[in-house]
Inverse folding.
């Protein structure tokens, strides 16, 4: 895309991928602004017994997401705890971070 002249930083078409940008740089592809990624956040949630760790349940069992404020219901759980288990659970908005933290080698 860069070599085809389709990428702009600010209003300047770039022709070389070796360019320095920062968090304030506006990047466009085909004149469409690429949205900036929200910063990663991690929350610690105390999961009580009786809730399941899923966004929705076909059996209509209560989930942790029903217990969260509406603005936090898009978060991803890092791992799970069983329905009959209570404990701390990490929640994040970053799927890559969640996967990284779930892998045993990490």
């Amino acid at each position: 895309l860069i070599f085809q002249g389709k990428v702009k930083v600010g209003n300047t078409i770039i022709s070389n991928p070796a360019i320095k940008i920062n968090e304030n740089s506006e990047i466009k592809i085909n004149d469409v602004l690429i949205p900036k990624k929200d910063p990663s956040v991690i929350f610690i949630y105390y999961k009580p017994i009786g809730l399941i760790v899923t966004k929705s349940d076909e059996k209509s069992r209560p989930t942790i997401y029903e217990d969260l404020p509406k603005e936090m219901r898009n978060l991803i759980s890092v791992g799970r705890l069983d329905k009959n288990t209570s404990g701390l659970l990490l929640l994040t908005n970053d799927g890559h971070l969640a996967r990284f933290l779930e892998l045993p080698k990490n």
